[in-house]
């Protein structure tokens, strides 16, 4: 923290020097303060270069590991007009846009992350992942 405090102090001092030089008309012919303004700007650029050279710390994933997310399995979907939707009754069959045996989509917070097949484990349904979606595909699905 001492290094960051020192950088903030230097940045603040340089900013004050630049503002003071601007107010006094630095850069005008015959003005002795023009050189001071140049020094402040040069020092400010040097500090900026030092900040750019710093390597960013590795991301701390520990902060996000306990955030709950919603996992959804999508069997398929269908488009239909409201008229047909209102005519559905118990026992009605809705044809989905997937073939039997096709993998299900695994969505995390609405984003496709994998595909898989349904399995039964001790009287509970589960999913066996058969394919994990690449990062490029995930990004494309967000667009």
Automatic annotation (TrEMBL):
Task: Give the CC-aspect GO terms.
Answer: bacterial-type flagellum basal body; plasma membrane
Indicate the principal place this protein occupies in or around the cell: membrane
Where is the sequence biased in composition, kind Basic and acidic residues?
A: 1-22
Which GO MF terms does the UniProt record name? cytoskeletal motor activity
> Which keywords does the record carry?
Bacterial flagellum, Cell membrane, Cell projection, Chemotaxis, Cilium, Flagellar rotation, Flagellum, Membrane
Q: Which family does it belong to?
A: Belongs to the FliN/MopA/SpaO family.
Under which name does UniProt file this protein?
A: Flagellar motor switch protein FliN
Q: Which organism is it from?
A: Zhongshania antarctica
Tell me the organism's taxonomic lineage.
Answer: Bacteria, Pseudomonadati, Pseudomonadota, Gammaproteobacteria, Cellvibrionales
């Amino acid at each position: 923290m001492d290094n960051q405090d020192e950088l903030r102090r230097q940045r603040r001092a340089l900013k004050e020097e630049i503002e003071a030089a601007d107010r006094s008309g630095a850069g005008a012919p015959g003005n002795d303060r023009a050189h001071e303004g140049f020094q402040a700007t040069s020092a400010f650029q040097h500090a900026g270069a030092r900040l750019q050279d710093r390597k960013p710390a590795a991301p701390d994933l520990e902060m996000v590991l306990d955030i709950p997310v919603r996992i959804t399995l999508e069997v398929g979907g269908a488009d239909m007009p409201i008229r047909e939707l209102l005519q559905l009754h118990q026992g009605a069959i809705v044809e989905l846009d997937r073939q039997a045996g096709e993998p299900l989509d695994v969505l995390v917070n609405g984003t496709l992350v994998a595909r898989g097949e349904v399995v039964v484990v001790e009287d509970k349904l589960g999913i066996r992942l058969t394919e994990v979606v690449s990062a490029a595909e995930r990004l494309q699905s967000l667009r």
